[in-house]
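User: Sequence recovery, please. Input:
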């Protein structure tokens, strides 16, 4: 079996690995986008509650209601901090998945290029054999 043909299974494995890496990368991107959206929602929610707290104070609400708002805003701050940490982890994970995909893509291209070189060499050998046969036939015809 020719070397270029033997490379087919390796190339297929490399392409599969590259596709798997792309899938993981896309899922990680999607997760990152979701976490960014959640963080923005939490931040907007906190701004809304801070605005409500300001209007409560100016409308003369009782202290227990104001304290409830302050406590809830404090809890939102904690949730925002945690979401920010999750977002940072997602960014790191995305960088790792991106690197894995780039490596898989490089491997796939290297194997594909090697297979192309093997095919070219095999073609050159075939051309030389055909030329040699043609030369031998021409020599035989000349000898007669």
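Assistant: Recovered sequence (144 residues):
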């Amino acid at each position: 079996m020719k070397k270029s043909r033997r490379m087919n299974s390796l190339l297929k494995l490399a392409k599969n690995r590259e596709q798997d890496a792309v899938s993981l990368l896309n899922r990680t991107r999607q997760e990152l986008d979701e976490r960014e959206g959640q963080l923005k929602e939490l931040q907007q929610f906190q701004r809304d509650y801070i605005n409500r707290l300001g209007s409560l104070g100016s409308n003369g609400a009782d202290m227990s209601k104001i304290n409830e708002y302050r406590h809830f805003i404090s809890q939102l701050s904690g949730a925002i901090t945690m979401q920010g940490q999750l977002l940072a982890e997602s960014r790191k994970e995305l960088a790792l998945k991106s690197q894995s995909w780039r490596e898989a893509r490089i491997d796939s291209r290297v194997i594909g290029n090697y297979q192309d070189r093997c095919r070219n060499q095999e073609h050159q050998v075939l051309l030389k054999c055909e030329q040699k046969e043609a030369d031998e036939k021409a020599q035989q015809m000349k000898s007669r």
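The radius of gyration is 33 Å.
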